Amino acid sequence: MNTPTAVEKSHEILRLENLCRVYRSGDIEVHALRDISLTIEAGEFIAIMGPSGSGKSTLLHTLGLLDRPDSGTYTLFGRDTTKMDDDTLATLRNHLAGFVFQQFHLLQRSSALDNVALPLVYAGRRQKKDRAEKRLAEVGLSHRSGHRPGELSGGEQQRVAIARALVNNPAVIFADEPTGNLDTKSEADIMAVLKDLNRRGKTIIMVTHEKEVAEHAGRIILMRDGKIVSDEKKAAPVPGDPPPAPDLPDRGAGRIAFTDHLRQAFASVFSHKMRSFLSILGILIGVAAVIAMLALGRGAKSSIEESLKSLGSNLLAIRPGTSIMRGVHTAGGDTAQFTDADVTAVAKLPSIRYSTGMVGGAGQIVFQNKNWSTRVEGVGYDYGVMRASLPVVGRWFTKDELRRRAKVLLVGTTVARELFGETSPIGKTVKFNRINFTVIGVLPPKGSNAWRDNDDVVLMPVTTAMYRVLGKTHLDFMYAEALNQELMATAEQEVGSLLRTRQRLSRGQDDTFTIRNLSDIQETLTATTRTMGILLGAIAAISLLVGGIGIMNIMLVSVTERTREIGLRMAIGARSRDILMQFLIESVVMTFWGGLLGTLMGVGTAMALSHFAGWTTLVGPDSILLATVFSVAVGIGFGLWPARKAAHLNPVEALRYE
Ligand code: ADP
């Protein structure tokens, strides 16, 4: 077991005792390592040889802390590694071990320099560039530091890999068939580099099946069927001080900087520009649609509110007939018929300020050779004040004109424009339904909405409209204005009971009229807006779901595609949570871009709609915030599974993944 004396005895750095490793696939057991015991001293250059399948790689992976034995102990610098957790092993790999693989395992989309600097990222070190440059110079590749692996020869790539293995100044270099993929010339180069490193005190453990390569080593261990069959020392270890037992950083120390995570995520997302763009398209379109629709919805709401305001405040609308909303419309005979006397009686109620009757219809207005079809409204004297309709040009009709059914009228701005163009209509004589009228005023503009132009109207005294133009004996409508907002309920009640009395309704009888106040209308509006909001929310949810699935799909592909990269990162010291963070941040970066571009597109669409279609739109900062938060949440939500999948990969299997 792990005793301090074992370390002090010699320059021993690692010791295996009765180590076994069994692979189980189904019922079949493969004993890859059987009862291996071995000590290795500082400064040794060891070649592990043996036929294929004899357990060389398994031994190297176990020594390099990439794999765990099933039984036996492995003591490294006096510490028992078999009881360590995965994070500690990752940290040890990062600080103590440097790996060189047959397949080089360089990141193809990063420069040689960035490849060399990668272990420093996981060590949380600063001045990564300087250290990496120094190591690259040591293997004679300073002049190729900006090149990508694809632009380097096999020998050069392997030298980059050696520089990467050295960058954290590890105690041991583990090399798995380092010359297996190289021509003879490059093989000689690499062996020279390794020998030189050994001469300078580095411990090197190398797996090879080539005799000539093994010749360079000072100790050759021969394996067969998971056992060491010979262990031959040709040269003494390079003399030197025993390497100090390395300080292991505390847990959590050497944490990889967030900016490094971000940089890596951006590099990865932008190295597949087209693919990343296509996969964020779902999010992009979803966010854009939601923002544009929210803007439209709000625009509509605000313009409706605007026109409600122009109706006047504290207003009660009273119309004959029962409310359809309350139930079945009962047969005729129980519909109130309002007259001027009702209006006067309502106006006398204590809670009421004004009241007016109203009739409506349609007609033709003719001026000289122009004629125009429009709406006509007959209204009471107080209507002008109540509904903010006092004319901007000209005057309102007088009480006297109302009494004598005078043939005067006021025109809305649309009518004024159509009939009179630029000239003033005041005092002009027009024909309305073949009756001569004098125009006395132009109404203030009230705007228009999708279904109605509020300025395409003619107003006249209600008496004139009823008896001279429309031939009606009763009012279509009454409006009453309460003294103030607080009195609305009282006013409604007073008007109701007054009208019931005047209509001679007995106790059990239903109302023959309906009173609505503006807050009813507002409530309807709120309800409509809420329904619209739910609808929008549903669309948003669906589009974000679809977008999220797109992201998840591409992240899963990416994890599979980069399995060997993940293995390599783990070998050089990435902990599970580093890999998790890497993939999570990558998917968040993608969805964030999707959200950002979608927001821009949504705002652009909203602006285009107001500019070209003339619709009112309103983009609130909260909808942008919502879009951002949602897209980031989608990134985390849908990126988590692929990221966990990546983080839980076994380093050895990941490295071997084809
Ligand atoms: P070498 O490197 O000497 O070729 P390995 O260490 O790769 O040998 O393998 C030793 C034995 O373990 C072989 O018989 C191999 O088939 C088996 N083996 C290696 N990895 C696995 C695995 N993941 N699952 C099952 N068997 C494995």
UniProtKB/TrEMBL annotation:
Single biological process term from Gene Ontology:
response to antibiotic
Q: Which GO terms describe its molecular function?
A: ATP binding; ATP hydrolysis activity; transmembrane transporter activity
Residues crossing the lipid bilayer are 277-297, 534-559, 579-603, 623-641
Q: Which residues form the ABC transporter domain?
A: 14-250
Q: Which GO terms describe its cellular component?
A: membrane protein complex; plasma membrane
Q: Which Pfam families match?
A: ABC_tran (PF00005), FtsX (PF02687), MacB_PCD (PF12704)
* Coiled-coil spans in chain: none
The way it spans or sits in the membrane comes to: Multi-pass membrane protein
Q: Where in the cell is it found?
A: Cell inner membrane
Q: List the keywords (alphabetical).
A: Antibiotic resistance, ATP-binding, Cell inner membrane, Cell membrane, Membrane, Nucleotide-binding, Transmembrane, Transmembrane helix, Transport
Q: Hey, what's the signal peptide range on this chain?
A: none
**Matching InterPro entries:** AAA+_ATPase (IPR003593), ABC3_permease_C (IPR003838), ABC_transporter-like_ATP-bd (IPR003439), ABC_transporter-like_CS (IPR017871), MacB-like_ATP-bd (IPR017911), MacB_PCD (IPR025857), Macrolide_Exporter_MacB (IPR050250), P-loop_NTPase (IPR027417)
Give the similarity note.
Belongs to the ABC transporter superfamily. Macrolide exporter (TC 3.A.1.122) family.
Could you identify this protein by its name? ABC transporter-related protein
Species whose genome carries this gene? Desulfosudis oleivorans (strain DSM 6200 / JCM 39069 / Hxd3)
Lineage per the UniProt record: Bacteria, Pseudomonadati, Thermodesulfobacteriota, Desulfobacteria, Desulfobacterales
